[in-house]
Amino acid sequence: MFKKLQKQAGEVLEFPSDILDGGPKITLMGRSEMIVEYFQDVILFSNEEIILKTPQGKLSIRGKSFVLTTVLDTEIHLHGQISQLSFGEG
């Protein structure tokens, strides 16, 4: 019942579906900048790969010369050469 009410309220208020479903919000600006919101934990960070734990599984970002410019509890800003995004289970 609560989920249904939450979804209906979100539609009326025009919340994005990713927020209502508990998934991450990913914003790409070209292939060199990315913002990921609503993740749970950083599993791996290197110059060529970042793996984030999200409510819907793992998010893997691959590329080169990664630099995290902003790191907050549930949001990161990434600069670098992004070449691949993939989603995994668990």
Compact summary:
With 90 residues, this protein is α+β, with helices and mostly antiparallel strands. 18% of the residues lie in helices and 56% in strands. It has helices at residues 2-12, 17-21, and strands spanning 25-29, 33-37, 41-45, 49-54, 57-71, 75-88.
Structure description:
With 90 residues, the protein is α+β, with helices and mostly antiparallel strands. It has a single domain, classed as Sandwich (Immunoglobulin-like). The protein contains 2 helices and 6 strands; from the N terminus they run ααββββββ. The protein has helices at residues 2-12, 17-21; strands spanning 25-29, 33-37, 41-45, 49-54, 57-71, 75-88. It has a 6-stranded antiparallel β-sheet, with no helix packed on it. A hairpin with a 3-residue loop joins strand 1 and strand 2. The longest helix is centred in the N-terminal third of the chain and has 11 residues, at 2-12.
- The arrangement of helices and strands along the chain is HHEEEEEE
**Mean of the pLDDT scores?**
84
Estimate the helix proportion, in percent.
10-25%
Whole-number count of domains = 1
Regarding quaternary structure, what we see is: single chain
Q: Find the CATH topology.
A: Immunoglobulin-like
Distance between the termini: 26 Å
Overall geometry comes to globular
Total beta strand runs: 6
| CATH class (first level) name | Mainly Beta
Report the CATH architecture: Sandwich
Content of β-strand: over 45%
Sheet/helix structural class = alpha+beta
Helical segment count: 2
